[in-house]
Specification:
Elements (H helix, E strand, L loop, with lengths): L5 H46 L3 H5 L13 H7 L3 H32 L6 H13 L4 H10 L17 H14 L2 H9 L4 H9 L4 H17 L2 H6 L8 H18 L2 H27 L2 H4 L3 H9 L3
Helix pairs in contact: 1-13, 3-13, 4-7, 4-10, 4-12, 7-15, 10-15, 12-13
Length: 307
Amino acid sequence: MGTLTPAVKENTGRIKNNRSSDTVMEYVMYAIAVVFLVILMYPLYFIVIASFSDPSAVAGGQVWLFPKGFTLDGYKELLKHQNIWIGYRNTILYTAVGTIIGLAVNISAAYALSRKDLAGRKFLSLFFIFTMFFNGGLIPTFLTIRDLHMYDTFLVMVLPFSVGVYNIIVARTFFQTSIPGDLWEAAQIDGCGNLRYFALVVLPLSKAIIAVLGLWIAVGHWNSYFNALIYLKNPDLHPLQLILRNILITNQMQSGMGTGEAAQIALRLANMMRYSVIIVATVPIMCVYPFVQKYFNQGVMIGAVKE
């Protein structure tokens, strides 16, 4: 084996030092990421262990790593309310139907606005953006929905608010940057029309943006309660979030109006149910995240660039 020249030895040592510094930096970045992960995840973890703990231990600050005074009374008390299952049914329906309608409306509008041969494209884009900053307000919207005979109906939860301008802008950017214009010209030569090209070429190439927008819209519908509070009076149409809110308010009012031991029991139940309500309301929609997580990096990157 020959001996290395001083210059080669110097370069080799520099490469080793660079690799060592890169490795150290990598470990530092991992450590910082773990710290941020713990900071972000601990509130969620605390809600979970608090929902299984004695409320007096939670109030006393004794619960911070594991449940203390393990109990399922909060969940038992919550599930005694039969209207929770009605709320689940309604929320699932609103989420499923609202997501399908929202995707159909937003994806179609975004694709149309991404086409350079669309007449009045700039005006339509400005018209959409204008509505992001100016709208009629709550009372004109309520009167419009009432005159359209959608007040206190299933449709009011899935139809009037299905257009999201932000979603349209994100999807339009995706179509402009990810779908080559040459594809449309090739499809035209093969005799393909607009609708067929959109259904057979554009949509299969747009799974990432469809998955991301679908999750955004679904989460919005799942967490929605304000529209139900304003536009629904029939309890059989109330979503889960509104029903849980009403249950929590009722228990807190009972604990506040009562006296003696009964008030203490009501207050204890209200405190136990507070964390159980969060778990019952959020766990189902969190189960959807792993299935679309792989599309998120691409979707967030697309959302960062807007034209």
